[in-house]
């Protein structure tokens, strides 16, 4: 099988490409390599893929329908995994339009071309941010009609569009709601990366709230394995991929201190209105449909991430965070 992975230089997209290649798939990756966060991290990820047999890369934007159309005309795909997205809850409040153009219109472009080419397998990366205000642990059947950020709203729109194309054109769709993904080569705008970076630099952590917020931190390798398993989904399914073991932010900071051997300095700020105070995934459906469950504890995952920082500190130290 040949699989198109959008956002292939992104954090999760890169790891999904690795798992696909390890499993024997041909992979075509696309990414626009934008500068929402320091592109040097994206380029590092891409270098890990470039010499892999079975991998081909195109620099293009899923918002560009004509460029995508040319790609679909010269490559024949058996499935599409859409990891390309504008991410970040807070930034979506500053620049909401780009979230709609990428997360909604970009998804629509892919679905339209899949329809035209007769491609029947679609995996959509979505988010636990949709569950704001719902009782925990979050189950997929909960109503998610009250998104509290433009980011969450754009992901809800992409989910609904995907259902429409499943209903009208028989495309099998797996919508994966990811829970706080972290790990080596993570996103510099997310707390696990930023906190480790600041501690290693000897700079204060900027913490919004008192640290009692709870997150279902999920290691990137586990997320990527679940994403590849989702290619087997028939029909339309929404599936949580989370660690099912939530922890406070303060505990993650304690682990960073343990594995770096350094004490964290913390600047406390106001809790952000668009942030969720708690997340916790019910993963019963992932176990039943995909035969998937996470294998990596937060302790093991943070240690691996700290070791990656240490191994790559010569270039990480100078990136923008």
Automatic annotation (TrEMBL):
**SUPFAM superfamilies linked:** NAD(P)-binding Rossmann-fold domains
- Provide the alphabetized UniProt keywords: NAD
**Record keywords: Cell membrane included?**
no
At the top level, the lineage of the source is Bacteria
Does the record bear NAD in its keywords?
yes
InterPro entries recorded: Epimerase_deHydtase (IPR001509), NAD(P)-bd_dom_sf (IPR036291)
Q: Where is the NAD-dependent epimerase/dehydratase domain?
A: 3-242
Q: Which residues cross the membrane?
A: none
* Name of the protein this chain belongs to: Nucleoside-diphosphate-sugar epimerase
Taxonomic lineage is: Bacteria, Pseudomonadati, Aquificota, Aquificia, Aquificales
């Amino acid at each position: 099988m040949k699989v198109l992975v959008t956002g292939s230089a992104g954090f999760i997209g890169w790891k999904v490409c690795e798992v696909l290649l390890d499993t024997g798939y041909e992979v075509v990756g696309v990414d626009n390599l934008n500068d929402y966060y320091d592109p040097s991290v994206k380029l590092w990820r891409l270098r890990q893929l470039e010499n892999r047999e079975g991998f081909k890369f195109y620099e293009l934007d899923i918002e560009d329908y004509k460029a995508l159309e040319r790609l679909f005309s010269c490559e024949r795909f058996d499935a599409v995994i859409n990891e390309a997205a504008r991410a970040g809850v807070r930034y979506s409040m500053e620049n909401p339009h780009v979230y709609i153009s990428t997360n909604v219109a970009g998804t629509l472009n892919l679905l339209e071309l899949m329809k035209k080419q007769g491609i029947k397998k679609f995996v959509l990366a979505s988010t636990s941010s949709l569950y704001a205000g719902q009782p925990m642990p979050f189950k997929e059947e909960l109503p998610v009609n009250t998104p509290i950020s433009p980011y969450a709203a754009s992901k809800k729109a992409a989910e609904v569009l995907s259902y429409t194309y499943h209903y009208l054109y028989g495309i099998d769709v797996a919508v994966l709601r990811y829970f706080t993904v972290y790990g080596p080569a993570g996103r510099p705008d997310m707390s696990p990366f930023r906190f480790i970076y600041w501690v290693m630099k000897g700079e204060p952590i900027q913490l919004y709230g008192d640290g009692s917020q709870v997150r279902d931190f999920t290691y990137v390798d586990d997320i990527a394995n679940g994403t590849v398993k989702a290619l087997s989904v028939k029909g339309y399914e929404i599936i949580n991929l989370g660690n099912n073991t939530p922890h406070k932010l303060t505990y993650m900071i304690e682990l960073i201190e343990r594995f770096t051997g350094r004490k964290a300095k913390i600047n406390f700020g106001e809790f952000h209105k668009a942030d969720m105070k708690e997340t916790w995934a019910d993963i019963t459906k992932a176990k039943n449909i995909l035969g998937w469950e996470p294998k990596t504890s937060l302790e093991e995952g943070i240690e691996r991430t700290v070791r990656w920082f240490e191994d790559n500190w010569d270039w990480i130290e100078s990136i923008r965070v």
